[in-house]
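Morning!

This is the sequence you dropped in the shared folder:
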Amino acid sequence: MPLTDGFKATMDAAIADPKSTAYDQLIKDQLAAYQTRFAATPGFPTVDWKLFKALLLVESGGPAGRVWTGKVMQIGNTGDPAYQVLISGAEHSKLIMDPQLVTDLRTGNIADARLNIRAAMAYMFTRAAQTTQQLFIDNPALLVYIVKRGDSLSSIAIKSSTTIQDLANCNPKATGAIHPGDKLSYHKSHMGYAISGWLPITADFLANRYNGGGDPNYAEKLNYVLAKLP
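The structure's back. Tokens below.
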């Protein structure tokens, strides 16, 4: 379905409005901070700040829209899943958010436009991140546990603040059977999730993974605005 003349006129007016630059620096600063934090992760996507600005204008309707100084990205609206994802730490969003954002979401006002934008960016990167469960060594010091009657690798892991995976790595023969008196090496360790890759952040990604696919013209809307931005 082609974009309506009304949508185009609204976006053209929004782009031409000098107030549309109000959040440009915030967007740039936030994207730079994510780049700094996650550049070393596999496949971290380069995000054109103007693509996010296009997202902002589409979501808000621009400076003339009634939400321009409020829930500008619609985060926190009734039925919006993003706010609850971030507040609860679901979808491994805790790996994405910096500590200040976590605090601000719990104590601040999500209707503050700048916080709304920061939350939207966190949700965008949460939806783009791919995670896998990994072994984390909490202390490199190698310790020794002496097996007692009734022990299993699972019970030893719990008692020793380590993991079955670390016990198996340090004691390959122990994966078959263990016996009282056996000495097992281990590290203090835990299993957790880490970022293993990223989906490319494009207009199609935002339409399907951020917006949720509810608007079949969403990607086209973003591309229309992006092409018009100076």
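Headline: Residues 134-194 form a domain with the Membrane-bound Lytic Murein Transglycosylase D; Chain A fold (CATH 3.10.350.10).

More detail when I'm at my desk.
O.
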